[in-house]
Structures are given as C-alpha cells and as structure tokens.
Amino acid sequence: MIERIAEFCIRRRAWVTGVLLTLTLILSWFALHIEVRTVFADMLPSRHEYVQTHEKFKDTFGGSNMVTIMFEVEQGDIFQTAVLDKVRSVTLGLREVSAVNQYQITSLASKKLKEVRASTAGIESRPLMWPDLPADAEAMAELKRSVLRNPMVYGPYVSKDLQATLVTVDFIDRQVDYSKVFHEVRALIAKVDDGSVKIRVVGDPILYGWVNHYLPETIQLVLAALAVTLVMLFLLLRTWRGLFLPLLAGVVSAIWALGICRLLGIHFEPLVIVVAMLITSRAVSHSVQIVNRFDDEIELLPPGSDTSRIAARIALADLFRPGMLGVIADAACMAVVALSPIPMLQKLTVLSVVWVSTLTVSAVILTPVLLSFIRKPHGMAHPLNCLPGLRKVLDLAVLVCLSRARYAVLGVSLVVVVGAGLYALNLKIGDANPGSPILWPQAQYNQDSAAINARFEGVDRMFVVLGDDSRPDLIKGNEALQAMNSFQRFIEAQPEVGGSVSIADVLPQVNASLREGNPRYLELGDTGNLNGSLMAMLDSVSEPGDISRFADEHYANGSVTLMFRDRQGETIRTAVARIKEFIASHPLSEGQWHLAGGLIGVMAAVNEIILSSQIEAIALALLVLAVLCTLVYRSSVAGMLFMVPVIISNMLTFAFMTWKGIGMNINTVPVAALGIGLGVDYAFYIADRIKEEIAAGSSPEHAIRQALHSSGMGVIVTASVLILATLLWWVSSLRFQAEMGLLMAIWLSVSAFSALFVMPALIYVTRPRFIFGERAAEPAASAQPAPFQPA
User: Fold this and answer.
1) Where is the chain membrane-spanning (predicted)?
2) What backbone phi and psi angles, to 5 degrees, belong to 142?
3) Residue 71 dihedral angles phi and psi, to the nearest 5°
4) What is the enclosing helix (H) or strand (E) of 729?
C-alpha cells in the first residue's frame, strides 16, 4: 500500500501539487482571520464543584477577574488632598471601563466603605469619603480618625502605616476582554500619574493584558527562531532544497491548522504559541529527514532525467511509515488532553491534533513530491561542509552501540531515569513560585503584586459560602454567624492567608456603635435574636448593594472572603484541606458550606483536575503510543521498546521542571502531553531504517551503521538546528515562554541522544523479532559486518 501511495504521488505530482497549493491558498484566507485572544470562561472546569459555586455566587460576592490598584506615598500619609483626588478620579473613571461590574468598585472614594454611628437620634451609616473630598484640614483629620477606628477599612483598604490605599474593581467574566481592559485601566491611571504617588495595579485582566502586550516581541522571537533555523539548515545541508522545503513544510502546516481551526470557530490563545512552535519543529524535522534520505539516494543513483523522481519515490516510500507513525503518535498523545473537563485544554487539543495531522500533507507528502521536480540534484549551494563534524558524533554512536560500551550506556540510562523519576515525584501541581509564573520575578506585574501583598492582607481572593437557598434569613441566625467567626479564626492561622472578612466582622461594629463605641461590646451578640436585630439595623441604613459583599438579598447565603498573599499550588491545597478539616469537625444543624469561588477557588478547581488527571493522562498517552507501535509493527515488543525513549525524555524533563520550580499547571500540561510524542519521533526513523536494512539482507552491525549515518544524520541535523532555535526563547519577557523554550530544547536533546545512543544499543542487545525476524536468535558474533557504504 505504501509503495502504491508513493508511486501515485510521484506519478501524479503535478495534480498533487496543484490540489495542495489550491487548498493552502483557500485556507490561508481563513488563517489570517483567526482570533488571537484569551477567554476566561475557557479556563474553568465547569462541572467542578468549586466552579459551580463560583458561577452561582460570583455576581454577589465577587468574581475571579478582580483588579486591585494601590496608591502609595513615600513621605507622610495618604490623607492629602492631592493623593485622595487621584483615588477619587480613578474610582469614578473605572465606571467607564469595559465590562466593569458597577456594584463591585470599592475604595475610600466609593459609597461602599462606610462608617456606622449611633446616637440618641438613631443609627446612621454614611460613606467615609463620598461624594466629595474633605473640604478642609479638620474634615481631613476626621476622615483619618474614621478610618483608624474602622477595622473593615484600616488594614483591608488603608495600610497599617497609612502610606497606601487600595481600589478594587471586579469585571463581568463573560464580557471581559483582557486586552481592552488592560489598555483602558492603564490609560486611566496614566491620566493621574504625575510621579508624586506610586500606583501599582494587579489582577488577571492586567496579567493577561501583559501577555498580549508582549505579543509583538513574541512575533519577533518567532521570526528570529525561523531565521536561525533557515541559516543552520542552509549551512548544514548545503542545498536550497534543504533550506526552503522544511520552511515550506512548517508554513503550510501552520496555514492549514489555523485555517481549519478558524472554520471550526476555535480562537488562538497567545500562550500556546510555544505549543505551535513545538509542532512546527516536527514539520521541519520530518521534512529534513525526507530531504536527507533524498540526498542519500541521489548519491547512489547515476545522473539522469529520472534521478530526482526515483530518489523522491524511494524517500517517500521508505519514510512514509515512520513519518506517519510519528504524526499519529504526536496527535494521539496530545488527544488525551481532551479528556480534561477544562474547555481551554479541549480547544487546544483540537488545534494541536489538527496542526499535527497537517504534517501528513506538509512534510510527509508535499516534501518528496516537490523534490521530484529538482533538475540538478547533485549540486551544492556553498562550499562550506559542516557535516564531517556531525559524522564524528555518528561514528561515536556506532562505536558505542557496537562495542561493550552499549551496556554502560543502557545501565547509566536506567540509573539516570530511575533517579530522575524519583526526583520528579516532587513536581508541584499549580504555580510553584510567588507571583505569576507567566512573567519573570522582576517584571512590573510581579513587583506590583509583591508590593501590595507586603502592605495589605493579600491580592488574590477566595470566597467560601455558608447557607441554604431554602432557608431565608439563615445568615441572621446565631449558629451561622458563630460558625463564620470560628472559621475565620481557624483559617487565618495559615500564614499565606493574610486575612478574611464576613458579615460576622461587621455586626460587632454595629453592636459597639449602639453602646457609644465601647470596645467591650466589639463582638457578636449572645443570642440569635440580638444578632438578627443588629443585622436589621444595619440593613435599614444600607443602600442597595452594600450588604452584597457579605450576604445575598434574602440572607440565605453568606460568604467568608479569604485574602491570599500568593497563589502557589501548595498554598491553595493547604487552604482547601484546612477548610475541609474545619467543616468536618464543626457540623451544622442548619445550612452547609460551599467551596469555593473567586480566583483562588477557580485555581483550586483547576489544580485538582490537573492533579487527578496528570498521571492518568501520562499513562494513557503511553498506552496509546504502545498500542500504535504494536499495530504498526504487529509486535507487542515494539510497543514496549518505543516507550523507552519516551520514558527517558519525560522523566528527565519532569526532573528539570522540579529543579527549576516550574509547576504543572493549565499552561504546561499541553507541552508535557505533546512531549510524549516528541520523545519517540527520532527513534521511529532509526528503528525503521535498521528494519529496512535487515530486510535487505544486511548484518545487524551494518544495518545499525547505515541507520545511524543516514537517518541519524537527519536526527542530529534537525536536533541541533531546533535546539539552537528554541533556546532563543530564553530572552523572552514572558517567563512561561522562556522556560517552555528551554524545556523544548531539553526534550529535543534527550530525544536525540536516546535515538542515537540508547535505541540502537537496546535494539542490538535485545534483537527484537519485529526488526530482525528469525535472525534475532543468532548470536552477535556470528554475523560479519558488511562493507560500509558512506551516506
């Protein structure tokens, strides 16, 4: 069948080229119109308990797209007209920002922060600084005193040293456009930023806005990596076909993938450009293998009019199986990610599988078809020959594999893999460092985040809900309020939780106010009736939306909002474990606790999904790979044999991630899954060439020599080129892209080493029947090496 496919493609090369060119031109129009954006809803595992709680209560207690702005002075305190005027201007200006939740803008200049006072005339609740700024020094002093005696403001919204204050604002998840919000908020801040006050801003809309901000730099890095790839291919392969055909394979696969995904309505996530580069590297790799095999066949064929067609047909026929197996393995290993309930990973899976599948057209078929048109295949584009240096590496590989050193390589590889595997058990799920792992620690966003966390209780929030929809006024009851109070004291013992707030913190203020501010009464009432009365009084002087931070309109559900100083995976897991511990040890007669909303609640859900599915996904990907190899080579031994380079590359890569503190999160999971397929691609070409030589009657020694000097040359060329190109990502302003580029380079290095040294040695030692046939039983010494034919 493979021979017939190769014969048809070369015989009908004009038709094949014309059809592929036409489809490429059509799809290029759709590819140019694909959307490049981040959709927050796609990051949520909608069926997870925490996400369901978040979706139900986010409009009341705050969503996960909260932005925090800090105004900070170096001298004096914030109680200056010039400083407070900036706070007021930004607070009012936020009302005009896209997708803003008008009821979730909180600052000194908003109506949300109030002071409750009681006198003989009655109980009064009034905003601290609204609608106007303090008119004179006395009014400013009174504002300062009001802040200092209000624990709901002093600490949470004004720093303890009085040198900073916060503005918080939430956005409607389903409407937020990160790039738009990022530019609008920065423009608003720029209007009031005259250098006298340090203004810092954080939050997911700002974080992903920074990702889009660096998109032009990312494109420049893509172009630089492309330029390095082209220069290296031109230097090493010394032919124009070795330069342009791998480039064309990468471009065609990108056009087809983006065009098809545009037709399917799938947008392009900026962060997954690393995955795109990884897949494109496979297109270059497959194409280089075919070009290299074409060059080998040209050397063996006499010059003639049909030389290129014959060499192209042989290259297509001989490399069709390993090429297609590599493509299918990459696609299948990536497809297991679709089992995750996270829409972003599911859409990314579709994009990746489509992209990988296009390599069948762009590299496996198009490259040999175009090679068949070459008229003078024996010429070289420049006299500089770098290949002798690479052949020395291949000679070393042959020497190692055919000598007793092969046992040392296999033994050391086993020890290294076991050690790396044990070390990789410490790989963290979720973010592994404070701040955002997407940006470098010295990035402005992470610096702003650290500064706010140093002065306040924490930037990132989680809310836990206590209630029952069928029980109105449940939160007014003594049991619910005491449970909230006890829960807050318990959870705040975790150092990473900077503070918490609930309605149980507000009622003591009302209670003390009714008794002329006597601090002895700064506590909840002793009975449910008293607490209910306090809440009724608070409700009577509140405006619509004032209580929504703490309870819903029927008082059936109340929230406890926790402030976190970091979003590391271990911090979130510890907090969730402690919350569950408290719930289990403090049963309620009425109502129940619901976990968990806000940004930290959503991240907890994502981390739990990744933790539960990570081992399953890796195991399933390995199983898929084993089944594919078993079916293609009709041998269960093949399935086990080809798992060896995959296990080596993945264990070493996971160990590196553990060492560098790179967590397994929603951004790194796709790269890890695709890496399973990447780890075996090179091995397919080596093993298949050995099988081909054995089938032609060569001895095992000669077969290994020929495979390493032919397919091995393709491996070492593509590996060296792509490793150098991916290392360029280390200069990226996005830490995630830099680390993933380094991760790709490690994967490629280990995969190339495994293909050149480990796999031939393992094949020579084990003599698998699917490669050697019945000759596998012959002792190694009985076979005499055949004369070596240079590639």
Assistant:
1) 14-34, 218-237, 244-265, 323-342, 348-374, 615-633, 640-662, 668-687, 708-730, 742-765
2) -65, -40
3) -105, 125
4) none
Q: What is the pLDDT of residue 478?
A: 84
Please report the DSSP string for 509-549 in residue order: HHHHHTTTT-GGG-S--SSHHHHHHHHHHHHHTPPTTSGGG
Phi/psi for 382 (5° steps) reads -150, 160
pLDDT tens digits along 63-113? 778 899 999 998 889 999 999 999 999 999 999 999 888 888 889 888 888
Looking from the CA of 343 toward its CB, the CA atoms found within 13 Å total 13
Higher pLDDT, 583 or 616: 583
Can the peptide bond before residue 131 be classed as cis, meaning omega within 30 degrees of 0? yes
- Helix boundaries (H) for 94-173: 137-148
- Cα(118)–Cα(126) distance, rounded to whole angstroms? 11
pTM over 0.70: yes
pLDDT, tens digit, 9 for 90 and up, residues 46-63: 788 898 888 888 877 877
* Residue 786 clears pLDDT 50, i.e. is over it: no
**Which bin fits 634, alpha (ψ -120 to 50), beta or left (φ > 0)?**
left
Among 725, 745, 742, residue whose Cα is nearest residue 232: 725
Q: Cα separations (Å) of 698 from 261, 301, 359, 657, 775?
A: 46, 20, 31, 43, 11
Neighbours of 174 (CB within 10 A): 10
As separate numbers, helices (DSSP H) first and strands (DSSP E) second, the chain gives 29, 10
- Burial label for 681, CB within 10 Å (0-12, 13-18, 19+), is buried
Tell me the two tokens of residue 258. 């983006």
Q: Does the pLDDT value for residue 537 go beyond 80?
A: no
